Amino acid sequence: MAQESLSYLGAFIGAIFEGEIAIVTSLQASHLVYTNFYGILLAGFLGTLSMDWFMYLNGRYNGRNYINKRPKLQVRLDKMNLYMDRYTNWLLFFYRFMYGFRIALPLLFGLNSIPVRKFAIYSLMSTVLWISLIGLLGHYLAAWLGL
Q1: How much is the pLDDT for 58?
Q2: Contact, 95 vs 5, CB < 8 A?
Q3: Which pLDDT score is estimated for 3?
Q4: Can you give the pLDDT at residue 147?
Q5: C-alpha–C-alpha distance, residues 124 and 32, integer Å
Q6: CA distance 80 to 63
Q7: Which of 13, 23, 45, 114 could anchor a disulfide with 109, C-beta 3.0 to 4.6 Å?
Q8: What local confidence, expressed as pLDDT, does residue 129 receive?
Q9: pLDDT value at position 1?
Q10: How is the chain split into domains, by residue range?
Q11: 109 near 56, Cβ under 8 Å?
Q12: Contacts of 34 by beta carbon, 8 Å cutoff, 6+ apart
């Protein structure tokens, strides 16, 4: 039982730092019946949301001070704000699927004062879709590998 709990903790922490690879790897263990498939998905879901909210709230409450101390970043932020204003809803929904932006965009959403409720709704929808797709990928990859 302790090993199973560590597997869920590993999936949670892996989702925070690495995302897809950690979840797919953890799902391989669930396919071998070391862990519960849905438990791994839940741990990955919660880990992913934790990082999103950490970055969003960090941007919302500390981002402006950080930018004010680094004026050169303000120019880059102004360019990014043009995209944020034009494609806010699309970015909120698909940022999780954009390689390399998974950490930066929630920070920018907080910095740009995207309302908490709006971020919460889009973050939940996006994460449910993401974890579902990653779950299917992990399940079928394990079946394909014959595990």
Answers
A1: 94
A2: no
A3: 66
A4: 59
A5: 29
A6: 14
A7: 114
A8: 94
A9: 56
A10: 2-145
A11: yes
A12: 3, 4, 7
Amino acid at 99: Y
CA torsion angle 84 87 88 90 (round to 10):
-140
For residues 43 and 30, the answer to whether their CB atoms sit within 8 Å is no
Residue with tokens 């391989």: 28
Can you list the residues of the chain whose pLDDT is less than 70? 1-4, 31, 33, 147
CA 134/CA 21 separation, integer angstroms? 9
Spatial distance between the Cα atoms of 132 and 125, rounded to a whole number of angstroms: 11
| 11 in Cβ contact with 119 (< 8 Å) | no
In the prediction, which pLDDT does 2 show? Answer: 63
Which DSSP letter does residue 96 get? G
- The pLDDT of residue 5: 74
Does the CA dihedral 82-97-56-17 come out positive or negative? Answer: negative
| CA dist list (Å): 98 to 5, 16, 93, 95, 130 | 30, 16, 10, 5, 11
